[in-house]
Structures are given as structure tokens and as C-alpha cells.
Amino acid sequence: MAFSSLEFVFLFLPAMLAAYYITPPKVRGVTMLLGSLFFYWWGVRSNPWMLGLLLVLMAWTYGAGVVMVYHRAWARTILVLSWTVLFGTLLFFKYMGLFAESPLPLPAGISFYTFTMAAYLADVARRKGPADWNPLRFANGVLLFPKLLSGPITPLTSVRRPCCRVSNFNLDLREFIWGLGLKLLLADQLGGLWRQLGNIGYESVSAPLAWLGLVAFSLQLYFDFYGYSKMAVGVGHMLGYHLPENFDHPYASRTMTEFWRRWHITLGAWFRDYVYIPLGGSRCSSGQHIRNLLIVWICTGLWHGSTLNYLLWGLSLFGLIVLEKRWTGAFFQRHGILCRLYMIPACLLTWMLFAIPDLHQLWTFAGRLFTEYSWSAPDFQRHLQQYGGYLAAGILLATPYPERLWRRLQRTAFGTIVLVIIFWAAAYAMAAGQNDPFLYFSF
Predict the structure, then answer these.
(1) I need a labelling partner for 234 at 20 to 30 A (CA). Which of 107, 165, 171, 266 fits?
(2) DSSP string, 36-86
(3) pTM (2 decimals)?
(4) For this UniProt entry, which segments traverse the membrane (predicted)?
(5) Rounded distance, CA 307 to CA 238, Å?
(6) pLDDT tens sequence across 406-434
(7) Distance (Å, rounded) from C-alpha 344 to C-alpha 395?
């Protein structure tokens, strides 16, 4: 069930909030579990085996955590075996398409809940977190519906029970509506420009339109996932659960290293804590440090998809980050204008690798970027007129300044009017079937 659907906004969410707060506090965990199970089942009801798979992996993880406590000498072995089961299952579904003509669909949320359970077992094995003996509390930590399908990826200890007071329900609702608007009224509209390039054929687009399309895709991906994350955080807070922010204005970054500290923050933190630091992090020789970065970025690319373009995308980011750490990073941090001249093409060209799975099409599109330029090209002018307003809004909202202004205005009457307009415009888009699936659902 997508957050940007009529059934979620007008049926499930109001019913869930009402049921949760009508229920006595001591049994709200049961209400949350039942609501989360229904939320997931509704989304996969045409493939109910996905729910069965999730429950089996949860049972394995719960049992492994308990056994680790009883048999500390076997904790490392149990961890290796459990990670093999969890990541083996993830890799099986992600890469089945390379070997099977009719692969099974990717289970909803598997990339996210696998990382949640793997982190839990690693923390128990290393005694950095307690094993949860309460199956209800453990299940809620994994299944909590605001973060189940696309994160944020959070430690189970932070979401097994409500941990924040619901004193700002009004602000949390506003955050949800703001995220809904970013998704439906901005990201989905920008996605229309990128889709049109595919319909035209990459070999037929002019160079200015190709660059314009990359700008549109870069903004679409950001506002699609950022909007989802804002909705997830808002719903979590409405229920008393603290979920971390996943983005911190990444397009305001001066280097690619900084960009990836600000983009999908919880995924980066997971790879840092469970891959990069255990390998030695930066506290090792230069060669080992580069090796550690290479492993992290290969894993990041493979986490996003099974096609070769994701591996190339991860390797390109690895190359840029190594260059920054060894030579260029300090220079760009000191020179604001030059860092923008570097980051704009760096972001666009790496997102190009991310956006186009077919390598032949990718090569064709890359070639169009550097053909003869004509800013008066009819296709460029036509699409700029059609999408220029959305692009301008996206570029502006990708900077920190509008959010700072919005924090001041959202409690005012003017802010309330703006949110009401956003909500009903988003509702109209949902009713008209203009709500595209969240892009990160495919990962």
C-alpha cells in the first residue's frame, strides 16, 4: 500500500490512528502489529507468499538472536549462518532475473527489512545491542509500517516501542502533507519529462534536451524519495515512533563525499557501521582504505539493482570519492564556485548511469549529451516550456532556504492555507490516477 494512494490517505491511515489511540496503551503493540501486517498484506495480496517469506525470515532472526544469548561461544557462527540466509535470500530474488526467463517479483521491502534484521543480529553478536526476548516487540520493530517498505533503515532498539510524545501531531500531519505534495505534485511531474525522452528515443533527442532530461531525473529521484521519507517520518511521529531523517539537502553539497553523507543517510550509515568500519575504515594503510571504499561502493551498487549499470554507477562514485579524499576534496571545499562547476556535471552524469539499465541505450544517450548544441532545438524549447516551471521549483526546493522559510510559515494561517491547497491538489492527482509508484519500491 503506497503512502500516495487514496486507500492509504483516506482509509487506512485515519482508521489506524483511531484504532491505535482508542486502544489502551498496554495493548497498543498488538494494534500496531495487526495494522502493519494488514498494511503489508494489502500491498502484496496478489503475491501472498511475500508475507510468508517475511514472517519466516523474522522467525529465523528472532530465534538466532535468542540462541546467541544462550550460546555466546557460537554467536559468530550463528551470525555468519544467519547473514548467509538473509543475504542469500535477498540476492536470490534480486538476481534471479539474470538466470530465469520468468523470475518471481522482488518481494516488497526486502532490501530494507533484510538490512534491519542483519543489523540487529550483528549488534547482538557484538554485544552492541540487546537481544529482544519479547516476540511482539521484536515483530513491531521489523514490521513498523511507516518504514517497512522503503525505510528509513533504523536499529530495532529505536522502534520496538513508542519513544516520543505525540505532542506535535499537527506538525507531524503537516510534514506528511508536505511530503505527499513533493511526491505527487513535483516528483511525478518531473518524471513525465524523463519518460518522454524514452518515448522519443535517446538517439533522437537533442543535446540540450538530453541534459534537461538528466536534470529532471535527478530532481525526480530526490523528491520522490525525499517526499516518501517525509511522509514516513510524519506518520511515525503521529504514532509516537521516532524515525530519522533520510536527506539533508544533498544537492547543496560541495563534494561527492559530502553528497553521500546527505543522501539516503540511513543506508550510508548502515554500510559505514556494518561494512566499512568492520573492514578497518580509514584507520589503516592507504591501499586498505581504498579497498574498503571499493567494497562499500560495489555493495551499494549491487544493493540498488542487478543490472550492470548499477555496478558502473557504484564504481563511478568510488572513483570520484577516492579522487576527493586524495587530491581534490580540500580544494573544492575552499572554492565555492568551482565546487558547483564540479558537482553539477558529476551528479548528472552519475545519475545517468543509475537511470538507464540497458548499456546500449546508455551509450547512445551519453553520446547525445556531447553532440552539436543548439539551444533553439525545437524539442528542447517545447519541453522547456512544458516543464520549465517544475524544473525551476525543483531546483529552488533542493536548496536549504525554502525549508527554513517554510519552518517559519507552516504554523501561520498562510502556511495552513498552502497545506490545504497542497493536500487537495494531491488528492485530485491520486483520484485521477496520476500517482506513479515510488521509485525506491523497485530496489
Answers:
(1) 107
(2) HHHHHHHHHTTSTHHHHHHHHHHHHHHHHHHHHHH-GGGHHHHHHHHHHHH
(3) 0.94
(4) 6-22, 27-43, 49-70, 77-98, 104-122, 205-223, 295-323, 335-356, 384-401, 413-433
(5) 38
(6) 888 888 899 899 999 999 999 999 998 87
(7) 12
